[in-house]
Amino acid sequence: MNASKAKVLFTDPYYNAAQVLVVTKKNKTISTLDDIKDKRVGVQLGTTGGVVAEKALGQNNPNMKQFRKYTEVFYELKLGRVDVVVVDMPVAQAYLKLKNFSDLKISSKPMSEEEFGIAIAKDNTELHKQLNAGLKSIRESGKLDQLLNKWFDETTAEADKK
């Protein structure tokens, strides 16, 4: 939410898409960013996962493999061409539910916060106030947690509370 703040207003955050590490179920050694420093790391091009991986590996590290689609990244992991994937937790959870990727697992705790909010024209302060009031109301009533649990996953909603 930070880069665009000069041009728009953002509501209070309603969601936190943390990054996680995904490995094969056989892998017992990768669970933190420190563990990936000498590994082949797969990310989707232009994502926060790429930023997180680059910080851990260093800029222009040849061990960081970038792909256009998440499906490619996960297949590269299955085929052993990368050792670990850095990805948004909801994306990881969705892919791991698919039969083709049932041999993969999330191996880390949620890392690196990326808060989501609603962007509003900078001069529309009234709408900004109304949306924040609405978000506060559904957060306090428990409705936001219900929606997160319904559309994402219970563990995603728990990470959002941190």
List the keywords.
20% strand, D-Maltodextrin-Binding Protein, domain 2, alpha/beta, 162 residues, 6 helices, five-stranded mixed β-sheet
Compute the CA-based radius of gyration.
18 Å
| Nearest-integer average pLDDT | 88
What is the 3D form? elongated
Strand order of the largest sheet: 5-4-6-3-7
Count of discrete domains: 2
> What is the count of β-strands?
9
> What distance lies between the first and last C-alpha atoms, to the nearest angstrom?
17 Å
Biggest β-sheet: count, sense, barrel? Answer: 5 strands, mixed
Estimated structural class: alpha/beta
Structure description:
There is one protein chain. This protein has 162 residues and is α/β, with parallel strands linked by helices. The chain folds into two domains: 8-14 and 120-160, no CATH class; 18-106, Periplasmic binding protein-like II (D-Maltodextrin-Binding Protein, domain 2, 3-Layer(aba) Sandwich). 37% of the residues lie in helices and 20% in strands. It contains six helices and nine strands, in the order ββββαβαβαβββααα. It has helices at 48-57, 70-78, 89-96, 125-141, 143-151, 154-160; strands at residues 8-10, 15-16, 19-24, 41-44, 64-67, 84-88, 104-106, 115-116, 119-121. The strands form three sheets. The chain has a five-stranded mixed beta sheet with strand order 5-4-6-3-7, with helices on both faces. Strands 1-9 form a two-stranded antiparallel sheet. Helix 5 packs across helix 6 (154-160). The longest helix has 17 residues, at 125-141. It is elongated, with a radius of gyration of 18 Å.
